[in-house]
Amino acid sequence: MEVVGGEVRGRWSTALALGGAVLLLYVLDAFPLIALPLAVLLIALPPWRPATLLFAAVVLLWALVVVPGVSAYGLITRGWALLVAGLFVGALLLWPRWSFLHRALAAVAGAMALAGAGLAISGSWSVVDGLIADFFRSALLVMAERLNSPAPDSRVLGWLQASAASPAGLERVLALRSWVFPALLALQSLAALGVGWWAFVRMGGVREGEGEGEGQTLRPLRDFRFHDQLIWLVIGGLVLLLLPLGPAANRVAANLLVFMGALYALRGVAIFVFLAGRAPSRLSVFFGALAALFLSHLVLTAAVLVGLGDTWLDVRRRVALASAAES
Questions:
Q1: DSSP state of 149
Q2: Are 250 and 240 contacting, i.e. CB atoms less than 8 angstroms apart?
Q3: How many domains are there within the chain?
Q4: N or C: fewer beta carbons within 10 Å in the chain?
Q5: Number of helices followed by number of strands (H, E) in the chain
Q6: pLDDT in tens, 5-29
Q7: 166 and 271, same domain (yes or no)
Q8: pLDDT of 102-139, one tens digit each?
Q9: What's the pTM value of the predicted model, to 2 decimals?
Q10: Quick one: 78 and 156 in the same domain?
C-alpha cells in the first residue's frame, strides 16, 4: 500500500494482511523473503543504532544460514530476496519522493528483468522451472492430504480438493501454478516488501520530514491506488496473448495479466471498502460482506472491472468532491 503523510506509526491490520498474502501465495519461503529486506533496510538506511544493527545482523545470519538450508530452492529464495532488497534500497535513494508502492513496483520489476535476463543468457530457465514445479508438487500433495472437509461455502477449497483427488487434477493445478509463478512471485515479493517496510518504520528507521515518501507509513486498504499508466501493461499483455508469437510470448502475457489483474482487483476492493465506509447503515455493509462471501467469483470479477474503470473514473476523488460540494 502507499504511504500517507502525517502517520509515523504502522498499521497492524495492514501488516497482518500483507503477511497473510506472503504465506498464501507461497512461491518462496516467507521468512527469508520478509527478513532479508528488513535487515538490508536497517543496515543501509539511517538512523544506524547499535541495537537495530545487531538485530539486522542476527536476522541476516538466521535467514541466510539457518532457515533456507543448502538446497537449490533455498539458494534461489535467498538470492531473490537479496536482489529485491538491494533494488528497493536503490529505489529509496534514487526516488525519495515516490510512494512505497511505486518504489516496490520498481524494485520487483527490476529484479524480474535482471533475473529473467540472467536465466535466459545462462540457459538455466528450465532448471528453475523444474525446481519451482517440484516445490509446488510437494506443497500440493501436502495440501491434498489436509483438505478433508472444506468449509461448505468455500468454492476454492472444494475445487482444490476435487482437483487434488486425481493425478490428472493435481497436474492441472500444478501446471497452472507453475505457468504463472513469476506473477505470483512478484505479488508475494510486493507483500513481503510491505511487511519489511512496515517493520522498518515501526523500528524507527525513518524520520518525519525526510521526504514525501519517507517518515510515513503504509496507507489503509481503502486508499490503495497506483499509477494509471500501468494500464499499458494490461494492454500489452492482451496484445501479446492475441498475436501468434509462440509459447514464450503467451507465458509473458499470462503473467502480466495475472499480476495486473491482482493489482486491479485489489484497487477495486479498495473502492468497495471506501464506499462501505460511507454507507448509510451497518446493515448495508453486512449485506455487502455476505455478497462477497457467497458470490466470490462475481465479486472478484466486479473488483477487477471496478479497478480498471477507476483508471479513468477516479471514483474516490469524485465522491470526495461531491461530498465537499454538498457540505
A1: S
A2: yes
A3: 2
A4: C
A5: 14, 2
A6: 334 344 677 888 899 999 988 888 8
A7: no
A8: 999 999 999 999 999 999 898 888 888 888 888 887 77
A9: 0.84
A10: yes
